[in-house]
Amino acid sequence: METATFGNGCFWCTEAIFQELKGVEKVLSGYAGGHVDNPTYKQVCAGTTGHAEVLQVTYDPEQVSYQELLEVFWSTHDPTTLNRQGNDIGTQYRSVIFYHNSEQKELAERYKQELDASGAFDAPIVTEIEPLGKFYPAEDYHLNYFNTHGHEPYCSFVIRPKVDKFRKVFGAKLKSA
User: How remote is the C-alpha of 116 from its chain's centroid?
Assistant: First the structure.
């Protein structure tokens, strides 16, 4: 098993996507990239800790490659908006890849350069690519959020459309496929 760490907006939304991907064994919401030890959700949301909401994805590289995880990462958020995803605004929602080794760094940088050069987006990509320092798991009530709170308005109006779009685009790569 290998690990990847991505920040691409609200972890409630992105957790629900990566959980459905074939080869992904575990998705853990948390915080990374900040300067405060053991931050709380309230502290991170205040924007004073420097942390981003992230996912730590444990995956089987025999079933899904890091390159495929990057494809999902780039395709399921807007990497051209600085410190923002939709209505979620602040550095905690920044687009960031925290790499675990030199191969992940190289692949992430190459993918970003190729996307920028291709004109895939109307604006330059602002995604940060940084080494993972410390990862802090989110509080228990954030974990598996969409699956346990799918009936709530935020899940219905914000998360469900993202998950539905992901399922259409990546249908062949889903666990249920």
Answer: 19
Whether residue 150 has pLDDT greater than 90: no
| Dihedral sign from CA coordinates of 122, 123, 129, 133 | negative
Q: Which pair of tokens denotes residue 91? A: 């550095």
Q: How many CA atoms lie within 13 A of 153 on its CB side?
A: 0
| Residue matched to tokens 């399922």 | 167
Mean pLDDT of the chain: 95
Q: What is the pLDDT of residues 18-50, one digit of tens each?
A: 999 999 999 999 999 999 999 999 999 999 999
Question: Considering just the CA atoms, what is the radius of gyration of the chain in Å?
Answer: 15
State yes or no: is 10 an active-site residue.
yes
Catalytic residue (one of 10, 13, 45, 155): 10
Pair of tokens at residue 35: 């300067």
Those residues with Cβ within 8 angstroms of residue 123's Cβ, 6 or more apart along the chain or in another chain:
80
Which residue stretches of the chain are H helix?
Answer: 11-18, 41-46, 66-75, 102-118, 145-149, 153-154, 160-169
The pLDDT value given to residue 177:
66
Strands 95-99 and 128-131: parallel
Tokens linked to 61: 């590289």
- Please state the φ and ψ torsions of residue 123, each to the nearest 5 degrees: -135, 165
